[in-house]
Specification:
337 residues, 0% strand, membrane, mainly alpha, Na+/H+ antiporter like fold
Length: 337
């Protein structure tokens, strides 16, 4: 019997186990330096794989649908940060100030790729457009997220020295591996796709390693002593409210602008997602070690909430009557499978 789609997946349980391990057995002393070096290598490898998986053909094929892609990018990098600021007076009292900084960091992250495409396919949406939009969001996020983080999330770190240091780290640890992977995509893209099951543990293992290192540093600094249970529950509420507002907003915008139902599905699932795979390693580069734990906690919670909610939403979309466009979407899904 298969697991219901609204329940947490194995990777979520692995994340919880990693946080628990870091809480009970945090890396200290010489172990801290070892994991820092290992994490730096893992982040470079992770973004190299992201670049190698980014298909230029999919991006070029979807460029003609520019209105849809522009709306998705605007939802990801404009609507989300705007909501973070607008909702702050109503929601910030539910969490600690540091956790709400993590919420703002969540708001400037790029969209996911795999889950956005998977839910669009499940809901019989415009799959080629979803591939293009999600891929473009990942590519743009490598550049836009650090800039928005410096401007909106931690403006007190925007002095020239820290900004230059941050840009240097971003270029070396994120942009260079990402672009190297993408430049090599014509040569290794097929290999990466064929061996996705083998590479997936490397991808997920890199994230788990970053989470362990981040939470180890945060635990040593007293994360759990400073985070009351009420703040954790409040963070769940904040993530739920943020996701609900974005889902309603993307749906209304898609309908108001006259997009088809298939395009609406793509806009909803690509415009409402935030990437755990990009957010965790980026936080390791962009924030001091002691801050990374509180920064990624909102991302981890939002990730699971968006998966459970969108699984239910995709099933509702999929039950709509067949139309010629929906039949074409099903054919595209079978072709891409």
């Amino acid at each position: 019997m298969s697991r219901p789609k609204y329940l947490p997946d194995n990777f979520t349980f692995a994340l919880l186990a990693t946080v628990l391990t870091a809480s009970l057995l945090p890396a200290t002393g010489a172990g801290t330096h070892f994991f820092e070096v290992l994490t730096t290598i893992a982040i470079a490898l992770l973004f190299f794989l992201h670049g190698a998986k980014l298909s230029r053909a999919a991006v070029i094929a979807g460029i003609s649908h520019w209105r849809l892609h522009l709306l998705v990018v605007a939802c990801t990098f404009v609507l989300f940060p705007l909501l973070g600021f607008v909702l702050k007076p109503a929601l910030s009292w539910l969490v600690t100030p540091q956790l709400y900084v993590g919420v703002m960091y969540l708001c400037v992250l790029p969209a996911t790729v795999q889950s956005a495409i998977a839910f669009t396919s499940m809901a019989r949406g415009n799959i080629p457009a979803a591939v293009c939009s999600a891929s473009a969001s990942t590519l743009l996020g490598v550049f836009i997220t650090p800039v928005l983080t410096n401007l909106l999330v931690v403006p007190h770190n925007s002095g020239s020295g820290s900004a230059l240091d941050g840009i240097g780290k971003i270029v070396l640890q994120l942009v260079v591996p990402f672009m190297a992977g993408h430049l090599l995509q014509p040569l290794i893209g097929g290999f990466v796709k064929r061996n996705a099951k083998v590479i997936k543990p490397v991808d997920q293992g890199s994230i788990l390693l970053v989470v362990y290192t981040a939470f180890s540093a945060a635990v040593v600094e007293g994360l759990w002593r400073q985070l009351p249970l009420s703040a954790f529950i409040g963070l769940v509420v904040v993530c739920c409210v943020l996701l609900a507002v974005v889902l309603v907003s993307t749906t209304m915008l898609a309908r108001k602008l006259g997009f088809s139902k298939e395009d609406e599905i793509t806009i909803v699932f690509c415009g409402s997602k935030k990437s755990l795979a990009s957010g965790v390693p980026m936080a390791k580069v962009l924030f001091p070690a002691a801050m990374v734990g509180p920064m990624v906690l909102p991302v981890m919670l939002f990730h699971q909430i968006q998966l459970m909610t969108c699984a239910i939403l995709a099933q509702r979309y999929a039950r709509r009557p067949d139309t010629p466009t929906a039949i074409a979407a099903d054919a595209a899904a079978r072709k891409l499978a």
